[in-house]
Amino acid sequence: MSGGSYYVPATSRWPVLCSLALGVMMIGLGIKLVYDTGLHLAFIGVIGIVAVMWLWFRDVVIESQGGLYDAQMDRSFRWGMGWFVFSEVMFFAAFFGALFYVRMFAIPWLGGEGSKGVAALLWPDFVAHWPLINPPDSSISGPQQVFSPWQLPLVNTLILITSSITLTIAHEALKEGYRKACRNWLTGTVLLGVCFIIIQGVEYYEAYAHYGITLEAGIFGATFFILTGFHGVHVIVGTLILATILVRIQKGHFAHENHFGFEASCWYWHFVDVVWVGLFIFVYVL
Amino acid sequence: MALKLPPQHNLQHSSTITADSQVHHGHPAQPRGILRWLLTTNHKEIGSLYLIFSLTMFFIGGIFALVVRAELFQPGLQLVNPEFFNQMTTMHGLIMVFAAVMPAFTGLANWMIPLQIGAPDMALPRLNNFSFWLLPVAFTLLLSTLLMPGGGPNFGWTFYAPLSTTYAPPSTTFFILAIHIAGISSILGAINIIATILNMRAPGMRLMDMPLFVWTWLITAFLLIAVMPVLAGVITMMLMDINFGTNFFNAAGGGDPVLFQHLFWFFGHPEVYIMILPAFGIVSAIIPTFARKPLFGYASMVYATASIALLSFLVWAHHMFVVGLPLVAELFFMYSTMLIAVPTGVKVFNWVTTLFRGSISFESPMLFSLAFVVLFTIGGFSGLMLAIAPADFQYHDTYFVVAHFHYVLVPGAVFAIMAGVYYWLPKWTGHYPNERLAQWHFWFSIVGVNLTFFPMHFAGLAGMPRRIPDYALQFADFNFISSIGAFFFGASQLLFVLVVVLCVRGGKKAPAKAWEGAEDLEWTVPSPAPLHTFETPPNFHRSSH
Fold it and tell me: Fewest CB atoms within 10 Å of the CB: A87, A121, A237, B183?
């Protein structure tokens, strides 16, 4: 708690513009999905969001560099970022929950397990199995085969875990004042993130081209793509955040004892990493 | 590096004021007109925006309800076709939950939490503005679905798959996107509230010194951050099932429509506590004030609120007793649900005990709070009846359920919001609300509420299904009374608007401490509260809770 030095910005035009841009994006997306037109509107919205966020964060950076933020403000950012990451955890929890529910309950019940045999009557010939290669109804074709976890997924796991380590080294270097080392290790982290995204892109291509794993391929395809897809989006966002941090390091931002922007990015990246470990175990291995 | 500050910023962080001074130095001229409201980062202005938005939506959602009640006035189909009837029940629920009740509590939180903990503003003021301005975007989009080809959402506010996926109108995609925006607003608002409460309290104010409204909002914000992302997840799966051919809620592909219900109610049950915990906080502020006694059992109130919040994660499937759950799940969710009666009972006991031997006066905030205690308890008891799984097989999807949740939401949440508005209006406007009109509003409301919702218990127990535009003749009398009551209640809410407008324009001047028995920090700043308060944190002296 501080003695009245808390910084309250007078007014800001960015929040209201950001909600407007988000609205334009959502309307464009809706028109695209329902009426198959209007994608340009969605793009205008996305560009608007990116532009406004750029300007908004720019204000924050300028204020921070200008020394307007006291220790209490720093704690507000910490609480804010921490609870934001928690909300992301719960977002992924919904998809993991769906996966566990389907594997532990829905599919065994369709196969006849349990006392509530009604689901089993729908497709009497269906035999429960996972990964679900043969969905209950013949109108839906499952994947032909699924990925071995010990090839590309393992490589990606090692890449992400390594990236968390390199990021930690970069952070320690910043704290100790070795800015050049920090920059180099951070560059390595960003490159590892890019590698992950490329490999994931290759895997998606393989999934559609050779494995028959598609969005339409029964519940396996659905859970596979929603979990890895949202994770992939988070890796892309995380990589962009770290790239921004890298630029700021180059510009001489971040004091060695006070650099929450850097730390927040680390929190986000480690979170993305932990989600991947969960994905690797429950989507690929088990 | 060379620094350039954005032009609109000023170094107001160095301004200091004495406790009773209203003169502020270092604040720039506010933008005028519409820009003032679009660009504001002030918690009081944003709080007012939330409250005005909520009141507007309360009337829009109310009109939808009156369409429903008008159609149900007598058996047979008279006014609207069944498709439109379904859209009205759906939109009434969605608007009241997401656009009326939740923003009203967030508005009260914005206004009162910084004042009650002695903070200069919310922790993240720009984010606060963003959270609010997402709401008009979200609900303009949602309401516009009514005008789209095929009509608006027609599957009930719970939007169960496959009604909301396979058999849904094309506008469902827009409905999903609108709920996404509203969800972002809720999450960011909740993050801001938690950061404010945990980080911005006046020096010396421990967590266990906070007013209960702050405590209940801290716990509510936690619930919001925990479950709104799950809602985002489940509507994303809907979006994929509708537009991208996935099979999350389609058993033919190995998915399960029941999965939708589990995910929805994992969000939905904490959500109903999100709509009642801040009400507990408001009532816990008002009853001690007008009983002129400290709240009985402050610590037990805090622990009870926390217990209710934790239990809310373990009871969701009591909404799904008839869906075909395994017996062990029926039993677990039945007993865990009944367990919630314990902390809730602690709360009701504490309110009643606070009144015991109090020096009670019956101003309008107190009237609404007392009605809250009695009528919310009725809603709680009908909830206990619904928690009994074998009994629920009979009650499920009948008007008994409608009666139950309207008792906890209208004389529960909505009455508490109105009590809070009457209680804090002197602080906001500097004038007391017109007590005579406010009391008329109270008595009209309480008659209207009970006329509307009490007969629904009987109609439901006799077997009248909910969400159906026609009904068998034997339910005619109950529905006749309910519809009369609904229009009476709806019309009497115009009185509320009148009181608020009159209070903003003038009235009896209120001193800083507007109510004799009021104790919290908000009563130490002048009435009306100046735009900026507590820029220098106040010295907090522990009072006896």
Answer: A121
